[in-house]
Amino acid sequence: MSGAVTDLPFVQPVDGTAAEAIASIGDELALFDDWMDRYEYIIEMGRNLPPFPAEWQNDGHRVPGCQSQVWLEAHESDGRLFFAGASDAAIVNGLVALLLRVYSGRDRAEIEATDPTFLHDLGLVKALSTNRGNGVEAMAQAIRARARA
Question: Could you tell me the maximum CA-CA distance found in the chain, to the nearest angstrom?
Fold first, then answer.
């Protein structure tokens, strides 16, 4: 990493805590009447991710357990982990953006303490196909594993 953590492609936190991010996402998803509109919103979140470097789109950055290709990278600065991520599928890219909004820019303890049960609480896992639901949980576990490393 050549510069400060504010360099792209690492996602900067927009909410004060992971819990606040989860609450905000829940409020935002509740604005939509059905899951098709929520999917569009999630896809739009993915379109707003910082560009993920092509040289990181390799097996060393790949998240196992995902139906689509998903890549993650982390950088630690001042005791906080910042994540970059991407997928080759639009909806999954949106799910990456959602997870990074929750976890990126947090310290290791907060990441570990933020159980991905919020994915069920928000209705996301139930609304996704089984493979996508398993994949988003695999992404959350990969992020939390990085915090334990």
Answer: 44
- For 14-59, the pLDDT digits (tens) are 999 999 999 999 999 999 999 999 999 999 999 999 999 999 999 9
Whole-prediction pTM value?
0.91
Catalytic residue among 45, 49, 63, 66: 66
Q: What is the DSSP secondary-structure string of the chain?
A: --S-TTSTTSPPP-SSSHHHHHHHHHHHHHTSSSHHHHHHHHHHHHHTSPPPPGGG-STTTBPTT-SS-EEEEEEEETTEEEEEEEESSHHHHHHHHHHHHHHTTEEHHHHHHS-TTHHHHTTHHHHS-HHHHHHHHHHHHHHHHHHH-
The span from the CA of 6 to the CA of 50, in Å, is: 11
d(CA 149, CA 145): 6
Task: Tell me, yes or no, if 138 is annotated catalytic.
Answer: no
Beta-bridge partner residues of 87:
70
